[in-house]
Structures are given as C-alpha cells and as structure tokens.
C-alpha cells in the first residue's frame, strides 16, 4: 500500500517528526481551533460557524446495515470474468478487500432468469422445469471471490426475470407462487450445496409488482428448508404500496424484514417509518462514474440516513464491466470493460465509498443527531458501542452531485466552520484520524481519500473549516488504508481480428469470452454425437420466452466487438436445430442492445430451415434488403460469411457468393453479432470477425 497521508490542503506534507505544516496544524488545534483543517485561502472571517453535539448518553439511533453494490440487473459484470490475472484479482481487491479500496459490506446479485435485465441477459440455474445447473453465469464465482476477501460480506439475491416455464405461458411469476418459491429457494440451496455460500437476504421481483401471498409462501418455504436465517426484502421498487400494505396485513408485516426502495432521492414516507422496519435504499446511484457521479454517491451515502432513515445504500452497479455503448455505460463504482487489454480504472466513487466502509461495519449504530450542516451538506456519526466513533461529513454542491434520478431540488452549500462537541462516552476521545477528499471540477485534479494529520480534541471539542465539494472522515479507528496496485496496462480497442472456435473441454464459465447476450442465452456445448469437426460449439439454449423485465426481442442475439467498427467481415459455422421454421443469423454494424434490444438495427444475414435466406436492416426482420433461396437445411452445418464495406454488403454460403451489392445506408457502425430467429436451439462454431 502507498502511504496516503497528505497535508491539510492535499499536498504532500512534512514528515510528522519535522516542524513543517504538521507542527503548525497541531498548534492551531491546541489554540482552540481558531483555524481548522479547512481549505486554503478561505479566511476565517468569511466562514459561517455552527456547533454540533455528538452524544450517546440518551441512546443511539438506528443500526447501520452496510454499504453495498449490485452485480447484475443485468450482465453488468459480464466482461470482468474474462480478465487475465493479475488484473482480475486487482479489480476484485479494489471492490471487496477490507481496508484496501471500496471495502464493500454487501454484494447484491441478480438471480439470473434468462431475460434482458438492462445490459444483457443472465442465465438461469433452471432453464427448463427438469433442469438444474448451479455453475452457469458468473455470479456464483463473484460471490465466492467477495467472500474470499471479506468473509463477513452480506449476500443478497434478487430476480429481475424468470424462465418462461414458471409462468406456464403467462408473463407473470405469481400465478403459481409455489413454483416461483421453489425456484428461488433452489437457487439459495444451490448456493450453499455447490459453493458453500450462505445467502443473507432475498428479494421478490425487481421493480415490479409484489404478491403478498407469494411473500408469505416464500417465508414458509424458506423456514421449511431450514433457511430461517435468510431475511426477506420487499419490494425493491417504491416505498408504496408495500409500506401501506405492511401496516394493514400483520401476517405480511411479520415476514418482511426490510423495506427496500429504489432511487428514493434520500427521502422516505410516513408509512415506511410507521412499520418500524429496517429501511434501505436497495438500489441507488446508477450515475456516470466521473466526479459528478462521485459527488452524487457522497451526498446520498450520508443523506439517505440524514433525510430518510435508510441504514443501507446499495449502488447499481458494482463495476462497469459491459460494453460502454450499452445502456447506462460506465455507471459502476469503477470501470473494467477491456478484458482483452487488461485495462481498468479505479474511479472516484471507489474512494468516496471508502470514507464510510473502511471506518464502519454492519452492526454499528448511528448517533441520534440531525445531521444537516448549517452551511449546507451533511454529516453522520456512527459508533460500535465500544467507544469507537466515526464521523463522515460531505459538502457536495447541487450541480456537482446530481444523480441520474430522481431530479434534485435546488440547494446551496457555502464554506463554513463546524465545531463538534463530543459528549457521553466520547468525551474522553483525545485524537481523531482524518481522511479527506476534494472533488475538483475546474482542473479535474481531485484529491481522493488522503490521510491528513490527526485532529486533537481539546476539552471535548474540535473545529473544521469546510469548503464545498469535500468529504471528511474523522475516526478513532487507525485501520484505514489507501492501497494501490501497479498501473494496469493502457487501454486498447477490441482486437480487429478475433477468432473463437469454442474448443474448450472444461470451460471455467458457461459463456464464451466477450460475447454479450442481449436476448436468449448462448452457452458452451459439447456435441457427443458429432464425428469430430463440431464437438465443441456455442449453443443458444432458451427455447421459451422468459417472464420478462424489459422488452426482450422476439429473436435471440449476442453481440461482440468494437461498437466503432465500420467495415468488417464476419464468418461463422451455423447449425439450425429447429425443423421447418428454424433460422439463424450473423450480423455486423449492430447498433443497440440492453433494454433497447427490440429496436436494434444493423446488417443481418439470415438463413432458414426451409431453404431461404434474407438480408435485413434490423433484428426484427421487417426491413428486408434482399431475399432468395439458399438450400440451407436444419441439422446440417453451413458456413456463413458477411462482408460489409462502406455502403455495400455481400454474403457467402459455404465459401460461395450467395448475394452481393446490397446497399447499406445506416447504421454506420456497430458490433458483430450472432443469433436465432426465435427462442430455439441452434449452434455456432468457428466464429471469426475481422
């Protein structure tokens, strides 16, 4: 670890033993704090001053439950798994390792349901009713990596989508609540049986309706399977109607442990408080991870409690490990979207997180204080009940802390002096460690999570001069660290010549590297009956439309490559399994995905089991550019080649020209892709894009 200790203005300071700024600082503090640890160049006379009392004698506030982040909802960690070592472990350390970086207390993952859940689909552990596989996807791996670094981390599971069989043909998971409960509980049991993971909390259905009958049945089924320790969060949407219903239904009130709201804007509602339940912001942030994103995160981490009594805040998303041009690009606490180069970036929100997570733990308690600073901004104070105290202060200005949602009402923040009086069991505290961040929106030269010299508490009080857009942590704990790994490799575009023959006997993950499924699920497959050329393939395996969360396409599609690509040649061996009306495609210049997948445009080269082909300008197949006979049949291998140059495209079948000189007007660039005509089995092999 690098030593992060800095002087009061963020510049490297004199050693502690010297007579530089350290001695001066101690002198100021001993002289009754006529000038605190504040920003340089702000005259004392210009500052508004206010006093705040921190006292535990009259009891404590709510219990703190932790700071976390979401992997999924969906496919947000897709590219992370493909990083080579040591870079992958470095990224995981920055996220989960205690006293290293973000040091997260909680990890919330998607219970994959085969449907589109924002930036892709995540595979279900039960694609079909008689199918169970607890090694699909990457959330099992991620939870284990998190636990490896922090055995105390809390784990949360939440479904966004469900496999179609659960609804028996209806786009609704509550018609057969016993089936849905069995499905969710099998995921919890599988986590324990196959990965030794104890799930701490489970949710209902992300941002969609809840069913009281289902929630009660879920609790009953959990208890029946010896899972009494698993707590229920509801309803991962808004404060209402869940809070109102809990007040009316005593049986439901008994089985819901946490009310989880999304993007609450730091506010709660009276009914939620009346339930006396734990209140969480169970999904928040979702903001581009630059300095404004860091300001948003700093503000809500404090104010979700100060304004809304929320004792946990969970960021969507953990790490931006998906193609940036998909929806909500770079809305993670850090960025890791280039496994082919090893490049990643530890963004400012990581260090904003550390201000809270490195100096608190779930089970600590908030102090009963108002928490609003008179000059604008906020503070929270927490204790472990054993004499330790942590104070986190933020002075984020309105324009530098806007989250993606909801709209932020205007407020003002000005430089100010804050004097804190420590009473009760904190009266004997003599010094506090100090960690500081200053977000710089002028030069972009922010100072992040730097350790300053300790504050001397004089007769139970100390003062700080606070500038705008700052975060301070003052704490009795001496365990904080700003760790740094060697710089990762420089960024590189996706390889311009990329091949995958899928020939891997025991793949570490179920999905091939860099393919980002946008509807359907594409998995490694072993053809035991194949004579030899196509034993190992990639297979689309979702054969029934899932219970959707977003607008999944009617076709399946997986994208790959560089969104900026213009001219390209895509070649792939294809195998249609569905007789009569089956079909597959390869594509280039694919311009959309995620929640917008239905409106995807590009150049799509389709072949069908009835021996016809089509060229379309869209995934939906409505914009037909060319069509004719190909002679392709199901249950036989064929090689498709799509060549796009400038405004012209041509296609080959088994190496021979099938169509040419099709004029392409738009889109002008995009990914390569493979997919199927419907939710149907189909196989792909020897993929090559150049």
UniProtKB/TrEMBL annotation:
Residues 64-358 form the Glycosyl hydrolase family 59 catalytic domain. Residues 517-690 form the Glycosyl hydrolase family 59 C-terminal lectin domain. Its main location: other. GO terms for molecular function: galactosylceramidase activity. Its EC number is 3.2.1.46. Residues 1-36 form the signal peptide. It comes from the Eukaryota. It is an enzyme of class 3 (hydrolase). The keyword Glycosyltransferase does not apply. Keywords: Disulfide bond, Glycoprotein, Glycosidase, Hydrolase, Lipid degradation, Lipid metabolism, Lysosome, Signal, Sphingolipid metabolism. It holds the Pfam family Glyco_hydro_59. The active site is at residues 207, 283. GO terms for biological process: galactosylceramide catabolic process. The keyword NAD does not apply. It catalyses: beta-D-galactosyl-(1<->1)-sphing-4-enine + H2O = sphing-4-enine + D-galactose; a D-galactosylceramide + H2O = an N-acyl-sphingoid base + D-galactose. It is found in: Lysosome. Residues 366-480 form the Glycosyl hydrolase family 59 central domain. Gene3D superfamilies: Aldolase class I, Exo-inulinase, domain 1, Glycosidases. GO terms for cellular component: lysosome; membrane. Belongs to the glycosyl hydrolase 59 family. This is Galactocerebrosidase.
């Amino acid at each position: 670890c690098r030593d992060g200790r800095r002087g009061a203005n963020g510049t490297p300071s004199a050693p502690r033993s010297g007579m530089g700024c350290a001695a001066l600082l101690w002198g100021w503090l001993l002289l009754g704090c006529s000038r605190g640890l504040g920003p340089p160049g702000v005259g004392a006379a210009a500052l508004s001053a206010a006093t705040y009392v921190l006292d535990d004698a009259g009891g404590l506030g709510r219990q703190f439950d932790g700071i976390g982040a979401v992997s999924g909802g969906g496919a947000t960690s897709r590219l992370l798994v493909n990083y080579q070592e040591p870079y992958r472990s470095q990224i995981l350390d920055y996220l989960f390792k205690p006293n290293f970086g973000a040091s997260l207390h909680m990890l919330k993952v998607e219970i994959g349901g085969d449907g589109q859940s924002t930036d892709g689909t995540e595979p279900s552990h039960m694609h079909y009713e008689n199918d169970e596989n607890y090694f699909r996807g990457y959330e099992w791996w991620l939870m284990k990596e998190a636990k490896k670094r922090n055995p105390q981390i809390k784990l949360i599971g939440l479904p966004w989508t469900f496999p179609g069989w659960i609804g028996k043909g209806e786009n609704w998971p509550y018609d057969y609540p016993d089936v849905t409960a069995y499905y969710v509980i099998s995921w919890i049991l599988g986590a324990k049986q196959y990965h030794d993971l104890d799930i701490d909390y489970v949710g209902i259905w992300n941002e969609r309706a809840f069913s009281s009958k289902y929630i009660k049945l879920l609790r009953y089924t959990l208890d029946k399977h010896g899972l009494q320790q698993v707590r229920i969060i509801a309803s991962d949407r808004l404060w209402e109607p869940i809070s109102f219903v809990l007040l009316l239904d005593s049986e439901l009130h008994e089985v819901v442990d946490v009310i989880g709201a999304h993007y609450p804007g730091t506010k709660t509602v009276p009914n939620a408080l009346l339930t006396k339940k734990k209140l969480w912001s169970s999904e928040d942030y979702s903001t581009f991870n630059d300095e404004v994103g860091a300001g948003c995160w700093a503000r809500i981490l404090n104010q979700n409690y100060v304004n809304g009594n929320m004792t946990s805040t969970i960021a969507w998303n953990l790490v931006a490990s998906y193609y940036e041009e998909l929806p909500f690009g770079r809305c993670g606490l850090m960025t890791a979207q280039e496994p082919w180069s090893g490049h990643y970036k530890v963004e400012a929100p990581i260090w904003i997180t550390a201000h809270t997570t490195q100096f608190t733990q779930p089970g600590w308690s908030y102090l009963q204080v108002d928490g609003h600073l008179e000059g604008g901004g906020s503070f929270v104070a927490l204790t472990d009940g054993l004499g330790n105290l942590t104070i986190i202060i933020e002075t984020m200005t309105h324009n530098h802390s806007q989250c993606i949602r909801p709209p932020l009402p205007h407020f003002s923040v000005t430089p100010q002096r804050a004097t804190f009086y420590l009473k009760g069991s904190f009266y004997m505290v003599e010094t506090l460690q100090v960690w500081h961040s200053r977000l710089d929106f002028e030069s972009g030269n922010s100072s992040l999570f730097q350790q300053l010299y300790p504050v001397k508490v004089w007769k139970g009080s100390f003062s700080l001069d606070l500038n705008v857009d700052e975060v301070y942590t003052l704490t009795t704990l001496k365990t904080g660290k700003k760790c740094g790994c060697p710089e990762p490799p420089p960024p590189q575009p996706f390889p311009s010549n990329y091949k995958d023959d899928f020939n891997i006997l025991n793949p570490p993950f179920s999905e091939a590297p860099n393919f980002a499924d946008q509807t359907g699920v594409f998995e490694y497959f072993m053809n035991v009956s194949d004579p030899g050329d196509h034993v190992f393939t990639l297979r689309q395996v979702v054969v029934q439309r899932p219970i959707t969360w977003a607008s999944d396409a009617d076709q399946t599609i997986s994208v790959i490559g560089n969104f900026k690509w213009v001219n390209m040649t895509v070649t792939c061996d294809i195998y249609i399994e569905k007789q009569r009306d089956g079909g597959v495609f390869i594509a280039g210049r694919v311009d959309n995905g995620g929640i917008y997948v239905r409106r995807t445009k590009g150049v799509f080269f389709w072949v069908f089991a009835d021996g016809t082909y089509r060229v379309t300008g869209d995934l939906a197949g409505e914009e037909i550019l060319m069509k004719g006979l190909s002679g392709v049949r199901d249950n036989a291998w064929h090689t498709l080649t799509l060549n796009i140059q400038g405004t012209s495209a041509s296609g080959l079948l088994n190496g021979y020209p099938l169509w040419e000189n099709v004029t392409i007007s738009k889109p002008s660039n995009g990914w390569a892709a493979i997919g199927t005509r419907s939710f149907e089995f189909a196989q792909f092999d020897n993929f090559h894009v150049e």
